[in-house]
Amino acid sequence: MPATTPVAQDFVPYATAAIDFHRALNVPTGPLVASRAELDALHEHLVSLHGLLDAHTQRTSPLLPAEGDHLKAARTRLWQAADHLHAAYHASPRPGSGDVPEPEARRARLPEGAPELTICRRHQETAQLVRRRTTPADLHTPFTGLVRR
Fold first, then answer.
1. Cis peptide before 115, with omega less than 30 degrees from 0?
2. Residue 138: CA atoms inside 13 Å, Cβ hemisphere, count?
3. What is the predicted pLDDT for the residue at 112?
4. Contact call for residues 39 and 92 (beta carbons, < 8 A)
């Protein structure tokens, strides 16, 4: 009988189920503005998923370049989604007052101080990794990967 290597527990399905459960319980039907706390949590989730895909991409690309290309494209798309969530966070109503930032303030992208600075810090830390792993052309092209066959 061949010896088998124990496989580490796969927690990704549990994370997916938790997101589905969260959506079913906490996001009612009908029009509703996403809160800054919700956008921050979604941003944190996407950044974590970006890190997981980055690890897989770094390990896979040298061994299977075609698969690595697809993983790189997925990683880039996740970063783009996180970047849009970061922008949505700063365009959303401010807690307490409910004021919506003026277009000039949104374009300036100025940090608003703690605790709002947490999302900006996380975003900047991930942006450093993105700058090391991708080119500006990769980030701005409508198609984010060479597909090898």
1. yes
2. 18
3. 63
4. yes
